Amino acid sequence: MLEAQGETVAARKEAQGLPSYFAHEPVILALLSLTAVLSFLAVTGLSRIYHAQQQFLGNRWFARGTADLKARRFDAAVAEFRNALLYARDNYSYQLDLAEALLGLNRTTEAYSYLLSLWERQPENGTVNLELARIFARNGDRDNAIRYYHNAIYAIWNGDPDVKRRNARLELIEFLLKENAKPQAQAELVALATDLPDDPALLARVGDLFAQAEEYERALTEYRHSLKLNPQNPAVMAAAGGAAFELGRYKLAKTYLESAVSADPNDAQSADRLKTAALVLQMDPFRRQISATERGRMVIEAFNTAGKRLKSCATADGSKVATPDTNQQPDLLTRWNEMKPKITERGIRRNPNLVEQAMDLVFTIERQTNAECGPPTGTDLALLLISNLHEGS
Description:
mainly alpha
């Protein structure tokens, strides 16, 4: 009985303790939850600290690499960018600058691998497309080089996008000219020239590229625009004179070349062109506003000059300079000798048709000797250029 009473008392005490436990359970749960939250925050904080430290180290190596890349210390830059990537393996900027440093060391294959991966991630990135274009240009792959240059021209650029797109097109044009792809270079130049800023140096550069592409009219336009902005540039004056010279606009060429030589007496090329342009203007018997007497004198001088050129061009064994059809016409020297007695002041006064007949022979001689004996100089060069002016007239 005593045992039964004991069990009853124990049961009562246990029953009395249960409400107390349930009363404290929310507090325990709250403490556990708080502990979990604190643990999570601690882990998150540590994770943030870790990632911040990783980012800090990556940025520090990247900054060093950027400085060395700018200073063209490519070996150091490669090592530093690789260290930066240890802390941010997929960082786009780190990989791009590493590729540029590798290109600086001519480690093209490694650079290409990075650039291709970057292009797949961001095919509109201007720098990536430009570097890929340069790789293909170095390898002589014209089609792919043009493709990526065009991508770069129309790509997304950060900071001065118009300037960077223009520079990409300029680089493409220079590549095309090196490849002797002049029609394609001309098309790119026309597109470039539609929206150029008023920068005399840039305009002169575009003029030079037009001249290299043998688009002398457009080259002259760019040079003249440049000179309006900076009239005292002797190099551009010389270039404008050269373009006018190539176009056969010798009066205009003479004006520009005189200014260029006056500003820079050591410019031998401009001095030679100036001398030739002056001779063309002096020796052309078909120019307007000259007297019949003066025209006759010019024809006689031109005829004698061509005769000397013809004789000097003859080979040592006495063979004759070819004619367009040697089976049907006498050789040029025979024709010249037959006409010579007629080419006098009196003969030309009596027969004005001799002017055209004599000059036709002069032009034929100068063209033929140019083809068979090499480029002429001095008065012979002037006569050849005059013949080009009147060809077909």
